[in-house]
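Tip: read the tokens left to right.
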């Protein structure tokens, strides 16, 4: 596993452009996301394709909501692109077409607002806090945030450029620690994957990620998590291929159906 410098350098402009360009192509082709309805192609059924870009930590909740929404609106063919919020911003700025975007923090959504990429104001719809994820057997005997700084403990964090990494940095400073991660990932799901596979002894992820892991990892809560509560935001995207369908999804997400799905997944109120 490759060790990265603690300075957590920003992703280079050229690298972001390359990643964004590649993801734009896949997102526009429909390969980057998942289809909620599993139906026949839209041109054969008259369905309307609604493209939703969403933070990786929303994958389970949004998929569940889409299944419920399909019963009421079978004409909607929802396609998702789940990635780190920072990647979503790069893709949209590079020209990827989306009807709805949902980010894991307000700062990232603000970048799209500043760029004029949003159709109307963003709405806050959920909140999330960090927890320590460890393998079920907890081989490193982690019991507190300070244990992640012990020599020999393989800790994985999100890169500071993405919301889960910014939150990790805040709790680290609140605890007066200087963590030395063995790797920094661009999506919280990648941190979760390294812990569940045994590649890491511990990682900082959202509480909802542990709850949705179905026992692949277990959570170790810590008091400093209150220093970095992430608020999730959602908005329509300018020039989306189906803005009406996007409005339907947004209304479900911010209404009773979405609130129930999010609460069941462990999200807090915004």
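Filled-in amino acids:
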């Amino acid at each position: 596993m490759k060790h990265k410098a603690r300075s957590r350098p920003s992703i280079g402009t050229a690298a972001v452009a390359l990643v964004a360009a590649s993801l734009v192509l896949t997102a526009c082709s429909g390969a980057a996301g998942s289809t909620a309805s599993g139906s026949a192609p839209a041109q054969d059924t008259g369905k309307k394709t609604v493209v939703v870009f969403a933070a990786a930590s929303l994958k389970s909740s949004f998929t569940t909501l889409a299944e419920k929404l399909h019963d009421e609106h079978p004409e909607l063919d929802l396609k998702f692109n789940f990635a780190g919020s920072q990647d979503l911003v790069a893709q949209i700025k590079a020209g990827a077409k989306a009807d709805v975007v949902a980010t894991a923090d307000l700062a990232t959504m603000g970048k799209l607002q500043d760029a004029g990429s949003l159709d109307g104001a963003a709405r806050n719809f959920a909140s999330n806090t960090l927890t320590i994820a460890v393998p079920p057997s907890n081989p490193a005997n982690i019991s507190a945030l300070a244990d992640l700084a012990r020599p020999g403990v393989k800790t994985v964090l999100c890169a500071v450029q993405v919301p889960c990494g910014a939150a990790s940095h805040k709790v680290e400073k609140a605890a007066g620690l200087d963590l030395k991660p063995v790797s920094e990932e661009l999506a919280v799901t990648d941190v979760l994957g390294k812990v569940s596979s045994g590649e890491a002894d511990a990682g900082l992820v959202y509480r909802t990620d542990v709850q949705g892991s179905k026992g692949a990892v277990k959570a170790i809560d810590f008091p400093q998590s209150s220093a970095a509560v992430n608020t999730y935001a959602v908005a329509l995207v300018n020039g989306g291929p189906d803005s009406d369908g996007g409005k339907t999804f947004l209304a479900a997400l911010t209404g009773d159906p979405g609130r129930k799905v999010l609460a069941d997944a462990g999200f807090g109120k915004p």
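The CA atoms of residues 107 and 163 lie 8 Å apart. The chain has ten helices and ten strands.
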